[in-house]
Amino acid sequence: LIALKVRRPINLEDYTPPVELLQILPLKSSVRGKDVGPQIGPNNSKFSTGMQALLDLLFAVEGSVLDAAKILGLSTGALSRLILSDDSLRTAANELRASKVAAIAVGGVAVDGQSSTELILITGFRDIL
Fold it and tell me: For the whole model, what pTM was predicted?
């Protein structure tokens, strides 16, 4: 699916989750209004457009499930369960997160005496699925 591979840029400063994403979020999300309708799951044909929007957000927050969950009004556990609910979404999210870690590790900048690779190994695993 193209939805799993193509990322659209997001401006996080004024980000509002699109309806397609809101429709796949659990009902307990604090940003999901009651007017969105029932939650749609992986067996619904509209789920792929919600997946694309979720992956766009994950890309914008550099793969951080914690940061994405905050934006979506969910716990990291709830967002992780959503990602794990569909094998193709889980795979795409993990590939995205791995590519972000690899891209950051290439930088080679030292902070407090640690190379960026060491920093990634320390911080990159804080919210792995």
Answer: 0.76
